[in-house]
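Problem 12. The chain below contains 248 residues. Write out its predicted structure in token notation.
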Amino acid sequence: MSSSAHPHMRFETLAMRLRSSILLSVVFMLLVTALPARAGDVEVTLLLPVRARIDLTDRSTVTVAPFLVVSDEGEETAARRGIDVEREFERYMSRLIRRETRLKLIESGPVDYPSYDIRELSTDSDFWRYLGERTQADLIVSGSLDFDIQDRSGYRTEEYVSPYDGRTYYRQVLVEQTGFEYDIVMQVFDGVTGEQLYSDNFKDFKQFEGERADPLQGMFENLYALEDRIANIFAQKQVAATRVLITP
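Solution.
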């Protein structure tokens, strides 16, 4: 700019340079903060939004039909310990839908399924349309449950130092553990057309110390681990994703 330039223009140019300098300084400070002590890769965790799997536009009501408990072994074991798998899961789903959505819950009442084969049921649009008409629900949630309680006790090799000669030895030690495995097939149907809108399989396994670990605790530990994925059927959720930034 020539010396004859207007003073106001020179002031604006100087201000722009100052703002650019400040911005570059801030960016540099942020980059330095993100860098590790030495050059290398930086691992960051991002929360990414995931859209709901089902479009709830023009849908305001939902019913949770009885889920089929398909594992005789798991059902008998849970019942022997005082756990009603289907009833506990229905309560859980009802609470989840009330908390995560604005859908109105409608009681399904007793349901007489034409088949107990989950694959046949999933294609029986006439039945789901009939159930939708009977309950007046826009959406019908159903599926199957397999909750297994497993004795995972066994022997483990561990080392110990003898108090007599100070030498290290190995011995077999019995470790009592109980495993809880939840396998859920979740299906959602249109209450008007009977069409299947969504289907997925959710699985989780948890292991606890002790042969008589509380099965109800194990069940809900499984469900809490799957909760964001189940809720994402009806509502937008955030999932954690790890990304690596490559630095010089």
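Discussion. The domain at 48-244 is CATH 3.40.50 (Rossmann fold). Students who got a different answer should revisit the alignment rule from Section 12.3.
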